[in-house]
Structures are given as structure tokens and as C-alpha cells.
UniProtKB/TrEMBL annotation:
Organism: Bifidobacterium animalis subsp. lactis CNCM I-2494
Signal peptide start and end residues: none
Name by which UniProt lists this protein: Adenylate kinase
Record-listed E.C. numbers: 2.7.4.3
InterPro entries reported in the protein's UniProt record: Cytidylate_Kinase-2 (IPR052922), P-loop_NTPase (IPR027417)
Gene3D superfamilies: P-loop containing nucleotide triphosphate hydrolases
PANTHER family: TOXIN (PTHR37816:SF1), YALI0E33011P (PTHR37816)
Keywords, ordered alphabetically: Kinase, Transferase
Molecular functions per Gene Ontology: AMP kinase activity
UniProt keyword Membrane, yes or no: no
Domain of life of the source: Bacteria
Length: 199
């Protein structure tokens, strides 16, 4: 099967979740395993000098990607989630507890990242509070949007809160060469184990 065709009907994929959940690492593993083009919403929004593009320019960039035949989009950006859900066929929602997400962000400080145009050396208090508030202030709206997309459009939603993400990923990647599939699974299984250890 051609990689860009996707696996199990997977062609247009969203990877979402609280900062620190491991979205970008997971998205890269999925890209490498399935051969789908990967785009980071942070890279569409931010300039290297830490300024941002206008909303109109961001929306234009996003729309061009959405109209492509196959992609993985990494990032939340709640304002545009409804639009992205109108185009995607699959969502991976990395729904981990707050302490796991805080640990994930702290582990990335000072590292050059493919998904950001600069190196973030400090984990500032405002961002920390955003993560702490995420379950109460942002997660409910996200879950509502996912449930609506699943019911209305048949979008496949895989989330750790349903204890199914690892199996779903294994199903999606079935038929891949074993080494490529294992590379993708190894990361999420580590995060999944961390998730259950915190329950």
C-alpha cells in the first residue's frame, strides 16, 4: 500500500492534547511509520523572532493544508479545532493527567524542537498554569467537539481515557514493516505506562 494512502483508511489525522502530553513526539513517530506529511500548528502560527502571523494568514496556511489529500496536524488551537474536525478522518487525543504533562514540558526545556522555531529555555509560570487549568477549562470543550465529530461525521477518535490508544495505533499500523511500527508504538506505550502509573 502506498504510504500516502494511509492505513486502515487513515489519511487526515489530528494529534491533540494538553501541552506536555507528547503530541509532537507521537506525531513524528506516526509520520515516520505511516509516511503521512506532518505539519505543526505552532510552526504555522509563530515566527522565528517569537512574533506571530495574523489570524487571517494562519487561517490561509491552515486551509491550504486541510485541502491536501493526506496529512498529520499536530496541535490544539481551539479556535480552529471545529474546522479541522470537518476535514480529518482520525483523531489521536493524548489525554494524560496534569502531572504527566508537566513532567513532559519540563523535560523539553532547553531542547531544540522540530515543532517550534526557537528554543524555549524556561518553563514559565503562565504556561505551567495553563497546563494545570487545561482539564477544567479546555478539555471539556475538546471532548464535546470530538464526540460531535464522531457522531456526525464518523471521525475515529482514539484516546487514552478509553484505554484503547495503544491497540488503536497497532490496528492503524497493521501491515507496516515491523521495525517502523515498533518505533511508533514504543513511545506511546511508554507514555501509556506513565499514565496508568499515575492513576
Amino acid at each position: 500500500m502506498d504510504a500516502v494512502t494511509g492505513y486502515s483508511g487513515m489519511r487526515r489525522v489530528l494529534v491533540i492534547g494538553c501541552p506536555g502530553a507528547g503530541k509532537s513526539t507521537f506525531a513524528r513517530r506516526l509520520r515516520d511509520a505511516a509516511g503521512l506529511p506532518l505539519h505543526y500548528l505552532d510552526m504555522l502560527w509563530h515566527n522565528p523572532d517569537r512574533t506571530t502571523v495574523t489570524r487571517a494568514e494562519f487561517d490561509e496556511r491552515l486551509q491550504r493544508i486541510l485541502e491536501e489529500d493526506a496529512w498529520i496536524l499536530d496541535g490544539n488551537f481551539a479556535r480552529t479545532l471545529p474546522k479541522r474536525l470537518e476535514y480529518c478522518d482520525t483523531v489521536f487525543f493524548l489525554d494524560f493527567p496534569t502531572d504527566v504533562c508537566l513532567e513532559g514540558v519540563e523535560g523539553c526545556s532547553g531542547m531544540k524542537r522540530e515543532d517550534m522555531p526557537w528554543v524555549e529555555h524556561e518553563f514559565d509560570e503562565e504556561f505551567r498554569q495553563y497546563i494545570i487549568d487545561f482539564p477544567a477549562e479546555r478539555r471539556p470543550q475538546m471532548v464535546d467537539a470530538l464526540e460531535d465529530a464522531a457522531a456526525r461525521r464518523g471521525v475515529r477518535v482514539h484516546t487514552t481515557s478509553k484505554a484503547e490508544l495503544v491497540q488503536a495505533l497497532a490496528d492503524v499500523l497493521s501491515g507496516l514493516e515491523v521495525g517502523r511500527a515498533r518505533a511508533c508504538l514504543t513511545f506511546i506505550m511508554y507514555r501509556y505506562a506513565t499514565y496508568w502509573a499515575s492513576r
